[in-house]
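Researcher: Go.
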Amino acid sequence: MLTPTRRQALAACLSGMMLAPMSSQAQDWPSKPIRMVINFAPGSSPDVLGRAVATPLSQALGVPVVVENRTGAGGIVGADAVAKSPGDGYTLLMAAGSTMVVVPTLTAKMPYDPGKDLLPVAATARLELFLVVRSNSPFQSFADLQKFARANPGKLSYGSPGNGSTPHIGAEMLKSMAGIFAVHIPYRGSAPALQDLLAGNLDFFLDPGIAAPHIRSGALRLLAVGSTKRSFLYPDTPTLAELGLKGYDGGSTHSFYVPAGTPAAVIDRLNREINRILVTPAVTQVIRNLGAEPTPMTPAQLTALNAADTRRYAAIIKEKGIRGD
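Model: Structure:
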């Protein structure tokens, strides 16, 4: 019969034997290519950020980081693919902020549990929204757009990266707070929505940051910034809050996640490398081109930020009766 001391020793031994393979796995990682799934289309802000990180991350880890765009359902398709992947450290999700803080509130039946099946790794940047129209638009200001939309409900249209995306909810917030109605046209990513705006098929767009080159070239006119403070890129452009939409905040944070079961040591290594990469000059410039700043943080900090954003968006969605697909 085992004494209490011997039972404790045996339990410790068995525990060590069970943990050994996981520890060894983390120590041997990575030994093969890593798949980075981006859940929005090429050219979208999650895509721009994911690809900016992919190459230096590959160099840091010594293995290829292969980018794969999996679009659809407001980011659910790509996130679901990662959530159902093995938690072995070889699948990484680059997700739009809306995937974690908006879509679960809008979707009655999720194919995965965002809080359990995906583990936070690292943030990249806090993306703000920029209200843009074509340069030949009759709207010289937000007041012009608001006045026309009030007098002509349903005659204006706007695009978004998809139902449940932050630009979609941000535009619905704008409509509600401004007392206007415009038709929503969802796309599979922000890039095709932006192209249709430039082509004259949309009247306005709440851009998550990819329209900056067209604003600089004069192809687009920036009417307002949808954040709590003015953008460092456009210090002379007022926020929507300054223009009468008190408390308007359409920001969210694009971030990296891994499937549940991924070893903590792997997550820690990814977090360290990505946080280091974010503040390198080349990647910082990519982020600033989106009108944002690098936001390195721990997985715990990212979890807390997502929880706060979720509460804010859930309250707005409930208050305004916004529905997803």
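Model: The chain has two domains: 33-127+251-320, 130-225.
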